[in-house]
Design brief:
- The chain is mainly beta and 251 residues long.
- It has one domain: Immunoglobulin-like (Sandwich).
- 12% of the residues lie in helices and 34% in strands.
- It is built from three helices and 13 strands.
- Strands 1, 2, 3, 4, 5, 6, 7, 8, 9, 10, 11, 12 and 13 form a 13-stranded mixed beta sheet that branches.
- About 7% of the residues have low confidence.
Length: 251
């Protein structure tokens, strides 16, 4: 291959890599000094000032879902706060509790958070929450595509969950507007996954996080939307740590 051809190929490869990296969204997480009431209503002034993320996209191809989702994030010295705002015409859930012997909570509507504090793709945490405030949590030693195994016995001790439905939960006879899931993740529970990071973080610290949503129609309804803040790919599904978004903690 000629030098010119080699140089052209290198430019294509580097350009493709740079474009892929640029596709990853970033978010600056503002710090709050006021106590947060975890009820799903997001009425605190801090939430009103927190910017929205970009709209979620279908995780496989980046297209726009029918039911939009956006999120917000905050932090203080004890918790990382994440709120999902999910447009939904029929908010429903069935599982009122979850154990490792149960089917995946993602068999119904859920919001999902994946957290990798040191961004190495190892020992990252996953939490799923349905509209009934039922929680499924786990951590993985590495992603499934690289032979990773999920520890389903692990619990995100101290997590707080608030849900608010703009409509009526589990009523198929009316049209809802949205549901909001508000979460508080205690930093002390995360510390074992990233010994080199600060818990709580310091201003300027950077983590990797991705946010997902399962939107399902009722039983027998084939409609479903699996959307993400940052698009991953069909082969790896949601478990693609290199596709998690970049977040920076700010004072």
């Amino acid at each position: 291959m000629s030098r010119i051809a080699c140089a052209a190929l290198l430019l294509i490869v580097v350009g493709a890599f740079s474009l892929d990296a640029q596709e990853l969204h970033s978010y600056v997480i503002k710090k709050t000094a006021s106590p947060m009431v975890i009820d799903g209503r997001l009425t605190e002034p801090e939430w009103k000032k927190a910017p929205l993320t970009e709209k979620f996209v279908i995780y496989t191809d980046g297209s726009a879902p029918v039911f939009p989702t956006q999120a917000k994030m905050l932090w203080d010295n004890e918790y990382l706060y994440i709120a999902f705002i999910m447009t939904d015409e029929d908010v429903w859930g069935e599982m009122t509790s979850w154990t490792p012997s149960d089917k995946c909570l993602c068999s119904e509507e859920v919001a999902e958070v994946y957290i990798d504090p040191d961004g190495d793709g190892l020992m990252y945490m996953e939490t799923e929450i349905n509209p009934l405030k039922t929680v499924m949590d786990l951590y993985l030693d590495k992603e499934f595509a690289k032979g990773g195994k999920a520890n389903l016995e692990w619990k995100f001790e101290g997590i707080k969950v608030g849900v608010w439905v703009d409509g009526t939960l589990n009523n198929i006879n009316d049209v809802d507007k949205k549901w909001v899931c508000e979460l508080a993740f205690p930093f002390k529970t995360m510390a074992f996954t990233a010994p080199t990071k600060n818990f709580p973080p310091k201003a300027g610290d950077k983590w990797r996080i991705n946010l997902y949503r399962y939107e399902y129609g009722r039983k027998g309804d084939k409609k479903q939307e699996l959307s993400a803040w940052n698009k991953t790919d069909a082969k790896r599904g949601f478990h693609a740590p290199d596709r998690f978004g970049h977040v920076t903690f700010s004072e």
